[in-house]
């Protein structure tokens, strides 16, 4: 049994890059093929053996929690009409092992602050995953490899923090956390020397970007408690991870094997829909 039982999913962002879609609908509820983005992400956590989800949310986003809640009226209506397939579709959203808790982020002070809002829900020294829901991580077509599951395995074997990375073009490094490490082979990890949030291309230590999947020791929460604002004047998770390394804790970059779709902006979201819909057999 893995030590990593909880995944923190920050969902309090405004989703400005998806406007006007995301004005009244949380960006996490935007559909990708046949289900909302957040359902794909929760399925990824479940596939990795992580059953406890902590949503860090805010007002106006309760449809995310509703999506995973029972809907007795609808279930009764479907049952009375014998619509068993649709009932099974509903049941699959929240299998019995899935436990969802939500906490509020009272004001937007950055990703590090959002993650810290869930600190009190962790046990003493409990490691945790962080999953950023804008980016879908999917196995390659015709593969079932679970990159997040592999990170959990690597944590369990070593208790080295695991940060999922993929290579991006040099001109795009300013959008991401960029790690300083020798390039790991796909499906494997390599020790990191540092990580910087949104560097200028000329200052970037590599082209390996942080995708938004992390397995972290509890110590990161203690570091976040007094983490000063960094890039963009926000409290950055990246900065706390960098301090963790400065303390001598082993942090590794995990090179993913699958594919990413950045659904936080229109083009990436369209790409996810067209690619994944074709693979699911829809005739577009
Ligand atoms: C966040 C992280 C960044 C990471 C990125 C991945 O940035 O701070 O390190 O590379 O997610 O999407 P954001 O996109 O919230 O600005």
Explain the overall architecture.
The structure is a single chain. This protein has helices at 37-47, 62-68, 72-80, 84-93, 111-116, 147-158, 219-225, 237-246, 266-279, and strands at 6-10, 31-32, 35-36, 52-57, 99-104, 128-131, 135-138, 161-167, 177-181, 189-197, 208-216, 251-255, 259-262. By secondary structure, the protein is an alpha/beta fold. The protein has one domain (6-279): Spore Coat Polysaccharide Biosynthesis Protein SpsA, Chain A, CATH 3.90.550. The strands form three sheets. The chain has a nine-stranded mixed beta sheet. Strands 2-3 form a two-stranded antiparallel ribbon. Helix 7 crosses helix 8. The termini are far apart. 1-O-phosphono-alpha-D-glucopyranose binds next to strand 11 and helix 8.
Sum this structure up briefly.
With about 280 residues, the chain is an alpha/beta fold. Helix content is about 30%, strand content about 25%. Helix 7 packs across helix 8 (about 235-245).
